[in-house]
Design goal:
Layout: H1 3-11, H2 15-37, H3 40-56, H4 67-80, H5 86-90, H6 94-101, H7 115-130, H8 136-147, H9 152-159, H10 163-184, H11 200-205, H12 248-255
């Protein structure tokens, strides 16, 4: 079924079409939300709220852009307008993050069988946490432009700015992240002392990692183990494809039991 026909069917109250439509965009909304918010539970909550907004505003989609672009715009507007998260309150700058990396709350050696998994969890969590040090406009620009590789002309429409302004945001975000990684990250720059494997005990002790409930490592479909150099900066990020542990269609079908909600607006 073509996109226009699928949307028309959804607006007529067809639940099967609604399920297909939701599943077609759930992944992209979740991946954007998780990268933007870091916390998996927050990202899943945000994904559900964004999908509700997509569905309840479906009649407003006029086909002037790709459907995914329209969904991204709804998602970006929602995420940027959220209240300040607990992690944002903690990671107020790259200096704060750097100081945390130099604080060890446990032995540097970790030799249990799950070392590789926890190292992956820490590596992914750390690189995504760095994004929290960017202000929200720069963070969104970096995610859309450098990680998701969306063209600046399209990403500018998603974020509601001119293409030149969007490109400047991407350039600044890359500069800030690249500078931090080059100065502190041992994966990005082997001259640096910081290594994920040496921080596992500290991360476990202070709750950054919960081995019983991993945020990232066991839920990533693909991961780039070759850390590239500066198209390299995006290389650290752009091979994460995160899977939501929830099927949003079940929640949404319950919330949208009244088919008339699809015909609002």
């Amino acid at each position: 079924m073509e996109e226009k026909e699928l949307i028309k069917s959804c607006l007529e109250g067809n639940k099967q079409s609604l399920t297909i439509l939701v599943k077609s965009v759930q992944g992209l909304v979740f991946n954007l939300s998780l990268r933007f918010l870091w916390e998996r539970a927050d990202a899943e909550d945000a994904t559900q709220e964004i999908l509700i907004r997509v569905i309840t505003n479906l009649s407003k989609f006029k086909g002037n852009s790709k459907f995914n672009t329209w969904v991204y715009r709804i998602a970006a507007n929602y995420l940027i307008s959220l209240k300040t998260t607990s992690l944002e309150k903690k990671l107020t700058s790259f200096d704060v993050f750097a100081a945390d990396l130099q604080t060890f709350k446990g032995p540097v050696e970790y030799a249990l069988p799950d070392k590789s998994l926890l190292e992956e969890e820490l590596k992914t969590g750390c690189t995504l946490a760095m994004l929290q040090c960017l202000d929200r406009d720069l963070r969104m620009a970096f995610i859309l432009g450098s990680i998701l590789k969306i063209k600046s002309s399209v990403a500018a429409k998603i974020t509601g700015v001119k293409p030149d302004n969007f490109r400047k945001r991407v350039e600044l975000s890359r500069k800030l992240l690249g500078s931090f990684l080059n100065a502190h990250c041992g994966v990005y720059n082997t001259a640096n002392a910081c290594r994920c494997s040496k921080r596992i005990n500290s991360a476990l002790k202070c709750g950054q990692i919960n081995r019983e409930q991993l945020n990232f490592a066991d839920k990533v479909e693909s991961y780039n183990r070759e850390m590239e150099e500066l198209d390299g900066l995006a290389g650290i990020y752009n091979q994460h494809n995160f899977k939501s542990t929830e099927d949003m269609t079940q929640h949404l079908n319950a919330l949208l039991e009244n088919k008339s909600i699809l015909k609002q607006a």
